[in-house]
Design brief:
There is one protein chain. The chain has 109 residues and is of the alpha+beta class. It contains 3 helices and 2 strands. It has a two-stranded antiparallel sheet with strand order 1-2.
């Protein structure tokens, strides 16, 4: 059976619109781990920048909260839909995101 047989069968049955197409990858766990590591690095970089601007130094981490990746994805979808543009259905484009909220203690400058 061809990979697009379901699409052709649906069209022959009268369907003329497809909503909610999603693609996924089998290595999502590993990709998410890399995204989380990058999110922590970005948070540290931002903390250092803010601390420098405030003439203090970031101290040890006192709080870490994972941001639900589904919230990030839904937020991105909503933003894209608000603009009225369709999604990119090009092969090979899967976005895996991670977010983190990190609280650092502050030490004197």
């Amino acid at each position: 059976m061809p990979r697009n047989a379901a699409l052709f069968t649906s069209n022959e049955a009268g369907a003329n619109q497809v909503d909610g197409v999603e693609f996924d990858v089998s290595t999502k766990k590993e990709l998410r781990a890399r995204a989380r590591t990058a999110a922590v690095a970005a948070a540290r970089e931002k903390a250092a920048l803010y601390a420098e601007a405030a003439d203090v130094r970031p101290g040890p981490v006192i709080h870490i909260k994972d941001v639900d990746s589904d919230q990030l994805r839904n937020s991105y979808r909503g933003h894209r839909q608000a603009g009225g543009a369709g999604g990119d259905l090009a092969p090979g484009k899967i976005s895996v995101a991670a977010g983190v909220v990190i609280g650092f203690s502050i030490t004197g400058g």
